[in-house]
């Protein structure tokens, strides 16, 4: 229980203890006759018991109210936590979906770039081979020419 409820129980215990001590002190120091004193004590003890019952009932009602309020607040907090968790999951799913789309775009772009690089490499290879062939052809022409000595 919380501090307020424990304070109510402590108050009730203190009240009852004080009433008992007061009754005993009244017996010891009473100027009335025994019969009158006992009747007064019975009346006072009934009043104390009634008051204690009222205080106990009030404490129980208040404790139920506090408990119900705590349950209601706990339920509200649980609902809010569930809502936030659901929202976070949705955001995570959306972020994952966007990341997958971006990754797919990057893969596609990478494939296209690799294909373009292969085509360019083939074109360059063909150009190099053509250059080599042209150089061979020119060299063979040079070798076929008669040489003059100077």
Overview of this protein structure:
It is a single chain. The protein is built from 2 helices and no strands. Helix 1 (3-29) packs antiparallel against helix 2. It has 150 residues and is an all-alpha fold. The longest helix has 111 residues, at 34-144. It has helices spanning 3-29, 34-144. The N and C termini lie far apart (122 Å). It is rod-shaped and about 165 Å long.
List the keywords.
150 residues; 2 helices; 92% helix
Q: Could you give a quick summary of the protein structure above?
A:
The chain is mostly helical and 150 residues long. The protein contains two helices and no strands. α1 (3-29) runs antiparallel to α2.
The profile of the biggest β sheet is: none
The residue ranges in which pLDDT falls below 50 over 5 or more consecutive positions are: none
Global mean pLDDT = 85
Query: What coarse outline follows from CA principal-axis ratios?
Result: rod-shaped
Number of domains: 1
Distance between the termini: 122 Å
Number of helices: 2
Helical content class = over 70%
Task: List the secondary-structure elements in sequence, H or E.
Answer: HH
Q: What share of residues are in beta strands?
A: under 5%
Radius of gyration: 51 Å
**Which structural category fits the helices and strands?**
mainly alpha
Using DSSP, what is the number of strands?
A: 0
């Amino acid at each position: 229980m919380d501090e307020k409820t424990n304070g109510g129980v402590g108050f009730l215990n203190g009240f009852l203890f004080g009433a008992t001590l007061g009754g005993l002190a009244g017996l010891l120091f009473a100027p009335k006759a025994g019969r009158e004193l006992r009747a007064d004590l019975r009346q006072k003890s009934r009043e104390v018991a009634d008051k204690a019952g009222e205080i106990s009932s009030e404490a129980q009602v208040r404790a139920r109210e506090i408990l119900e309020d705590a349950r209601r607040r706990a339920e509200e907090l649980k609902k809010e936590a569930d809502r936030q968790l659901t929202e976070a999951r949705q955001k995570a799913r959306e972020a994952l979906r966007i990341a997958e789309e971006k990754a797919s775009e990057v893969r596609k772009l990478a494939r296209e770039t690799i294909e373009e690089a292969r085509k360019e490499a083939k074109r360059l290879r063909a150009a190099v081979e053509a250059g080599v062939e042209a150089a061979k052809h020119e060299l063979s022409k040079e070798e076929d020419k008669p040489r003059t000595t100077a």
